[in-house]
């Protein structure tokens, strides 16, 4: 009888053990195996600009660490709205991200209606870094200083043109803020990315550009473009831009228009997936390869938590909403 009871207890224990194991498997999130397929980072600009450069440089290291390819998907147009909307409508599984810029937080102030919910459509992953925009002209331009640009714009209202990588981008806002604070009239020419904008600037189709440092540093160093000023409150720590004055010290007090890069995923993405993406991206932007590629171009690396990025982005949204309203900035 004792043997029968012992055997019964053993069978019961085995059954309970199996049940517990099954329960554990059910409770384990499906994202535990993340990633098991390629990851896509949508860049809402054409290839060749600063956003594209930052995403591609990060993607190489992230892909190696995650064991899956990180594909860069350029989807330019509508001041980043086309690419951003594609991400908002993607599955919230961590496999589709957007490399956002200041345009992400400014578009709600510039657009009466967006195809996605700005406040509820995304979850922050990481603020990659902050950098200046740079007021540049081609090497043979008659403009040698900020004062020259202002004088030309006042002498011929509407004749001086400035390029940007798209309506609502940091370059566009930097130009509009310049116009308003100097009380000049300049014509905005939006492109589908910094690459084509710089091509036309070099070709003489446009006069000036408030470009991201990452997009134009190589052209400045090679002598193809001349940097007149940076848009940050203080001079850039970048060796290639350290001697370039700020727009504020060039005669426009209070002028500040930073540029930044950050990753978002669709809202509803599992917290553990976001945490893994944050940790992987954080390590990627701290590598010597990434620093060598972008810090020399003015990018000050951040790399905090998703909560840090969310707080920063909300502050930027509020700041630019005020600027847009007070200066009557439009997307043309």
UniProtKB/TrEMBL annotation:
<dbReference type="InterPro" id="IPR005064">
    <property type="entry name" value="BUG"/>
</dbReference>
<keyword id="KW-0732">Signal</keyword>
<comment type="similarity">
    <text>Belongs to the UPF0065 (bug) family.</text>
</comment>
<protein>
    <submittedName>
        <fullName>Tripartite tricarboxylate transporter substrate binding protein</fullName>
    </submittedName>
</protein>
<feature type="signal peptide">
    <location>
        <begin position="1"/>
        <end position="32"/>
    </location>
</feature>
<dbReference type="Pfam" id="PF03401">
    <property type="entry name" value="TctC"/>
</dbReference>
<dbReference type="InterPro" id="IPR042100">
    <property type="entry name" value="Bug_dom1"/>
</dbReference>
